[in-house]
Write a structure and sequence with these properties.
The complex is a heterodimer of chains A (about 120) and B (about 250). By secondary structure, chain A is an alpha+beta fold. Helix content of chain A is about 30%, strand content about 35%. Chain A starts with a helix and ends with a strand. The model of chain A has no long low-confidence stretch (mean pLDDT about 90). The longest helix of chain B has about 45 residues. In chain B, helix 1 packs antiparallel against helix 2, helix 3 packs parallel to helix 7 and helix 6 runs antiparallel to helix 7. About 10% of the residues of chain B have low confidence. Chain B has about 250 residues and is mostly helical. Chain B contains 8 helices and 5 strands; from the N terminus they run E-H-H-H-E-H-H-H-H-E-E-H-E. Classes of the chains: A alpha+beta (about 120), B mainly alpha (about 250).
Chain lengths: ~120, ~250
């Protein structure tokens, strides 16, 4: 790892310290805040799930933007470790309009926002 | 005993032009390089778009194919950041989507309607898109202008001083580039750390770490470039004088 990468990791560690960590359990998402506080958001309480493209200066991120009935918002990028278990959890919930294999491919094929939940 | 002739300026343009030249060259090379890397990424990403469309036209998609496509695209996203400038690498990492965002109520109060929220979610960060394109063009312009100015200065110098002027200009360009790249990174890191987790600036409002990094990077790049150009000019000229202008008296 180069010197710049090491320095960047230190800077990002300080910045990420203010962000909650996302973990996917069977049918829920657990948010762990920097102070240790945890919040569990059930997939059943999902009000909105949209796959969007967001520019990241050098790349374009594909992001699953979730909004829950209580107002909480969680974004998970495609290269995030939580992406795969989250896609599986959405499949198990039966609330999406198409299987995760299809919407993931559609999100790569078309940058337009893709709403996942059934009406 | 070695003596050094009295230094006289071989060319005349204002200090402001000299500072601007150094400042913009460093930042310009930084932005130009990153814009080039983004074009490379766009070309490679287009391959995945074509692959995805081919799978959709076929009519059925297996989980294994999806997994492979996702993994390959993730590898591209990861690898595309590696050749970026130090500023670019840090800025692109900061722009990675956040995991926990302001509440719906807060966003509703800012956006007004649910449709506006969905549109804001779907917008591909249009400001960043435009900035990326703008910065690429601006960077190239800065580089071209600075190189042209250096060539003019060298050509306009008197023949006996042309070598010295060329050395100074070369040192200024090299120092400006090095200082600009380092300054852009330091400005981005410093501003992002100050803005984290959120910073409210009077009149402007809330400043995210991404915005702070961008502003800090530009300011740092200009400042570092100016300083580096000055130091590079002085260093290169001194080396040239040492090598070529020593007069030995016996």
């Amino acid at each position: 790892m180069s010197l710049i990468d090491r320095l960047n990791r230190r800077v990002l560690a300080r910045l990420d310290a203010a962000r909650a960590q996302v973990m996917v359990e069977r049918d829920a998402i657990r948010l762990v805040a920097p102070d240790g506080a945890e919040q569990v958001l059930r997939i059943a309480d999902l009000a909105e799930a949209v796959v969007v493209h967001r520019d990241g200066y050098a790349v374009e991120h594909i992001v699953l933007a979730l909004r829950f009935a209580g107002g909480q918002r969680v974004d998970v990028a495609q290269d995030d470790p939580a992406w795969v278990p989250l896609a599986a959890a959405l499949d198990r919930s039966g609330r999406t309009r198409m299987p995760s294999s299809e919407w993931q491919v559609r999100s790569i094929a078309d940058p337009a926002p893709l709403s996942l939940l059934q009406d | 005993m070695a003596t050094r002739p009295r230094e006289e300026p071989e060319f005349l343009y204002s200090p402001a032009v000299r500072v601007a030249e150094g400042a913009t060259f460093g930042l310009g090379t930084n932005l130009t390089w990153d814009a080039y890397q983004r074009r490379l990424y766009n070309q490679q990403n287009a391959v995945f778009t074509r692959q995805a469309n081919a799978l959709l036209r076929r009519g059925f998609i297996t989980e294994a194919e999806t997994r492979i496509l996702i993994d390959q695209r993730n590898a591209l996203v990861r690898d595309a950041r590696r050749p970026l400038s130090p500023f670019g690498r840090l800025y692109s990492e900061i722009l990675k989507p956040t995991r926990n965002l302001p509440t719906y109520e807060r966003l509703l109060s800012a956006k007004g309607t649910q449709e506006a929220i969905l549109q804001s979610v779907g917008r591909t960060r249009a400001v960043v898109n435009r900035l990326s394109v703008t910065m690429g063009y601006a960077g190239r312009s800065m580089v071209v202008v600075n190189l042209a100015l250096s060539v003019v200065v060298i050509v306009q110098a008197s023949p006996e001083n042309r070598g010295r002027v060329a050395a100074g200009q070369g040192g200024a360009l090299a120092g400006g580039a090095a200082g600009g790249w380092a300054g852009a990174w330091a400005g981005c890191a410093g501003a992002a750390l100050i803005a984290s987790p959120s910073l409210v600036v009077p009149i402007i409002g809330e400043v995210g770490t991404g915005g702070a990094c961008l502003v800090g990077g530009i300011v740092g790049g200009l400042g570092g470039g100016a300083l580096g150009a000055w130091a590079g000019d002085r260093a290169a000229t001194s080396v040239y004088d040492y090598v070529t202008r020593l007069e030995w008296r016996r």
